[in-house]
Inverse folding.
């Protein structure tokens, strides 16, 4: 192994290992602050610089939490399977960290040489889903190895939920793969130079489905049943304390980053964004900054939803995945196919071989036809969603709350 | 017309309003930010908290007027100990479920606000650490002398003596009571006035009755005498 290779490997992986865990620390602070403000509280505001009374808006809170976690006693229940109890948090973190490698983040210090990625794959999207499925295993392992009824219930819920929601997640990503004509994250981002997929009707529907499924995949509220505090103590990590608990927490947040990163790649144009050409030194940073800003936008949305929505019931959760999201995403695939075919005007085969084919299709098409297609497919999807909702909950009407106001 | 998923957006609008509002409107915040004070500057007992009722109001007005936290003793307008309503009957002491009230009856009587000689509590302490805010003392008091306060600043660094609230710290004027619990105070005053009126009417009736009885007796005696005289 040459020195150059080792240097390249380090340059590609170390930023991921440094940047995302520190962003995790920042996100926990952001989440606590935002949730506090939503509930008309102040949130952490005293933990700043140690030994002084400088609060810094509580920015020291993650560091204080980290120190506390490291020095806490690590308790393993007597009946627990010690090996798997130890392995579970590590295994929960590994897939989350691996997924980060597939994100097309180009750090400027790799630009001077040939562009290196941590993991450049032609089929990154498939690998993403393959590896993110492993997190389920780790969570069930934690639930099983703890030998605690709440942990086991949490683990079982997690498996049911994550397996169910993986299907709409993958099916909505298929729409983007059809539009971009590639499975590579790089190519999908390039395809969106002209138009982000979220601005197409099928892309928008797919984005909504993807985002909902992503919330469920990362066990975020309103789909946080596996760790429902009010029902299961803490779900699958009831029996974890100290640094193992911190690892679970880290894994969960890294998974949030990863899945938001994938949403950014698939629907929000990756690192595309205005701002290039301000200064030659700043230019290489623009895509990275845009990418991370978009991830943070999605995470802010997740926090906002967590502060807003109550938790679903288990049967509602399952019904929502299988009876609502899945038929809708299958219909969305059909609509995408039809729309792309109409746009390409019979030249679909020829166009998908070339880059920027969506751009070429739209450029060559009749504007009236595009308008009809856009509004039409949006209406079809909306009607289908309303119809599915009616089928699932026949006769459901908005409720009149007797005691509200 | 209802948009599919519109309820989610409605809820998100509410949370956004709370989020933004909490930065601009101080009164939205449900928690107070405390100024840092060195340990020796901290109040050593509950009595050390601002004694002026205006000062206390600043604390308690941030609390909704339905809040009831800890008992206080009422006095009418005037010097607290001259107009205290409590007559040290010790009913509350007996009824208190966690037994946190300690009363010592005075040995001699003193005139109260009504100008009537009454006993008064020489000692009236309530232990904060034991009190469970059940308000039973308020229910059983026949003199409307003890009611609930909404003051919540009850912590002290002194675990033993500091948590025992003394009579003088418990004494609050009826005006203060009107300020913190306006509705309840008005009803209570109305009830007291009604009771007083009923009592007075009864007294009057009883006086008239006894007067009438005395007159009748006198008349009967007179009749008797005259009867005897005629015989």
């Amino acid at each position: 192994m040459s020195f150059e290779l080792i240097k390249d490997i380090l340059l590609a992986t170390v930023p991921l290992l440094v940047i995302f865990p520190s962003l995790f620390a920042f996100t926990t602070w952001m989440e606590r602050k935002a949730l506090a403000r939503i509930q008309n509280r102040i949130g952490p505001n005293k933990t700043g610089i140690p030994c002084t009374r400088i609060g810094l808006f509580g920015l020291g809170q993650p560091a204080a939490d980290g120190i506390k976690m490291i020095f806490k006693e690590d308790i393993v229940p007597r009946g627990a399977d010690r090996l798997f109890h130890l392995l579970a948090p590590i295994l929960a973190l590994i897939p989350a960290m691996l997924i980060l490698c597939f994100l097309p983040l180009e750090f400027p210090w790799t630009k001077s040489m040939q562009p290196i990625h941590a993991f450049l794959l032609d089929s990154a999207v498939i690998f993403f889903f393959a590896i993110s499925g492993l997190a389920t295993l780790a969570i069930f392992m934690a639930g099983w190895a703890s030998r605690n009824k709440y942990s086991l219930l949490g683990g079982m819920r997690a498996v049911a939920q994550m397996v169910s929601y993986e299907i709409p997640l993958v099916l909505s990503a298929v729409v983007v793969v059809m539009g971009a004509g590639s499975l590579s994250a790089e190519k999908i981002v390039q395809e969106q130079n002209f138009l982000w997929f979220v601005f197409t009707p099928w892309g928008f529907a797919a984005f909504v489905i993807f985002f909902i499924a992503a919330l469920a995949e990362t066990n975020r509220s309103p789909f946080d049943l596996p760790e429902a505090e009010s029902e299961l103590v803490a779900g699958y990590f009831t029996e974890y304390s100290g640094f193992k608990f911190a690892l679970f927490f880290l894994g969960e947040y890294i998974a949030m980053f990863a899945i938001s990163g994938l949403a950014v790649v698939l629907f929000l144009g990756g690192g595309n964004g205005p701002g290039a050409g301000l200064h030659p030194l700043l230019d290489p940073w623009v895509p990275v900054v845009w990418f991370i800003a978009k991830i943070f936008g999605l995470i802010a949305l997740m926090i906002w939803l967590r502060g807003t929505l109550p938790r679903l019931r288990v049967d509602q959760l399952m019904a929502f995945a299988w009876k609502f999201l899945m038929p809708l995403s299958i219909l969305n695939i059909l609509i995408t196919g039809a729309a792309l075919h109409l746009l390409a005007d019979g030249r679909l085969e020829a166009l998908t071989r070339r880059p920027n084919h969506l751009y070429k299709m739209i450029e060559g098409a009749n504007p009236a036809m595009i308008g009809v297609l856009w509004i039409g497919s949006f209406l079809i999807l909306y009607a289908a969603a309303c119809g599915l909702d009616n089928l699932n909950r026949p006769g459901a009407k908005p409720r009149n709350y007797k005691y509200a106001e | 017309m209802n948009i599919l998923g519109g309820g989610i957006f409605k809820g998100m609008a509410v949370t956004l309003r709370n989020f933004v509002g909490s930065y601009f409107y101080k009164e939205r915040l449900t928690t107070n930010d405390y100024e840092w004070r060195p340990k020796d500057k901290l109040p050593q007992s509950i009595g050390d908290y601002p004694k002026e009722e205006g000062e206390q109001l600043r604390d308690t007005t941030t609390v909704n007027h339905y809040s009831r936290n800890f008992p206080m003793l009422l006095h009418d307008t005037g010097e607290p100990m001259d107009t205290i309503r409590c007559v040290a009957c010790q009913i509350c002491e007996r009824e208190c479920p966690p037994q946190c009230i300690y009363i010592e009856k005075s040995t001699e009587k003193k005139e109260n606000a009504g100008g009537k000689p009454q006993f008064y509590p020489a000692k009236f302490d309530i232990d904060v650490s034991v009190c469970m805010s059940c308000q039973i003392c308020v229910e059983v008091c026949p003199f409307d002398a003890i009611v609930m306060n909404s003051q919540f600043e009850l912590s002290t660094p002194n675990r033993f003596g500091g948590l025992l609230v003394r009579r003088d710290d418990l004494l609050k004027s009826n005006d203060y009571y009107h300020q913190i619990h306006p509705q309840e105070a008005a009803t209570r005053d109305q009830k007291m006035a009604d009771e007083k009126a009923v009592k007075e009417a009864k007294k009057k009736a009883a006086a008239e009755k006894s007067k009438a009885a005395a007159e009748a007796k006198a008349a009967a005696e007179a009749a008797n005498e005259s009867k005897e005289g005629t015989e």
Observations:
- The longest strand of chain B covers residues 121-127.
- The CA atoms of residues 93 and 158 of chain B lie 24 Å apart.
- The longest helix of chain B spans residues 182-230.
- Chain B has two domains: 39-180, 181-211.
